[in-house]
C-alpha cells in the first residue's frame, strides 16, 4: 500500500513491458506498448486500510467481473464500470508488494493478469489464480507514478491554528 500513498495517478506496466489501458469503448481494458497516452493513466483512490480503486480517463473504475473471458479460458474479464452502490467489492484491489513490483488481488482472491499469445488472447487483461510458477511471475506489475499527491508539511504554526465559534 505504501507504494500508492503518494500517488494520484499511475500507470501499470506488465513484465512484457506493455501498459494496461482503458479502451475507447469505455468498457474494455487491454494492453498497449504505448504508455504515453491518457488511456494508460489510472487515478488512485484508497478505500479503507488495504484496498484501492483505480479510475480510468473515462471516469470508470477497474472491475473484476464474473464474466468468463472466453469459453475454455480460465480467466474472467476485467472491465471498466460506473461506481454503483450495489457493487460487491469487485472494484476494490488489494496491492501486494513483491520487491519493486506489485500483484493486484481481487476481493475473491484472484489476481489481475495480462494475457499474451495469439489472437484472440493477445493484449487482453483478465483475473484468475495462476497455478504454474511461470504464471505467477506474469501477474507482477511495475507501477509508474505519473502524478504525485501534493505533499503536506507540518510546521509549528499548524499547531497554533484554532477556530473561534460565534456564540450568537
From TrEMBL:
Superkingdom of origin organism: Eukaryota
InterPro entries: Actin-crosslinking (IPR008999), DUF569 (IPR007679)
UniProt cross-references to Pfam families, sorted A to Z: DUF569
Stretches assigned to the DUF569 domain: 1-141
Name of the protein described by the UniProt record: DUF569 domain-containing protein
Amino acid at each position: 500500500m505504501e507504494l500508492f500513498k503518494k500517488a494520484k495517478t499511475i500507470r501499470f506496466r506488465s513484465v512484457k513491458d506493455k501498459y494496461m489501458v482503458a479502451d475507447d469503448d469505455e468498457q474494455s481494458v487491454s494492453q498497449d506498448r504505448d504508455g504515453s497516452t491518457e488511456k494508460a493513466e489510472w487515478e488512485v483512490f484508497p478505500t479503507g486500510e488495504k484496498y484501492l480503486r483505480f479510475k480510468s480517463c473515462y471516469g470508470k473504475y477497474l472491475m473484476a467481473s464474473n464474466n468468463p473471458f472466453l469459453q475454455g479460458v480460465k480467466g474472467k474479464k476485467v472491465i471498466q464500470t460506473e461506481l454503483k452502490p450495489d457493487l460487491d467489492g469487485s472494484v476494490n484491489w488489494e496491492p501486494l508488494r513483491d520487491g519493486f513490483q506489485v500483484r493486484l488481488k481481487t476481493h475473491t482472491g484472484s489476481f489481475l493478469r495480462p494475457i499474451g499469445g495469439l489472437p484472440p488472447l493477445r493484449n487482453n487483461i483478465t483475473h484468475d489464480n495462476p497455478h504454474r510458477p511461470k504464471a505467477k511471475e506474469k501477474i507482477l506489475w511495475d507501477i509508474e507514478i505519473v502524478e504525485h499527491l501534493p505533499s503536506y508539511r507540518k510546521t509549528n504554526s499548524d499547531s497554533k491554528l484554532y477556530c473561534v465559534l460565534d456564540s450568537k
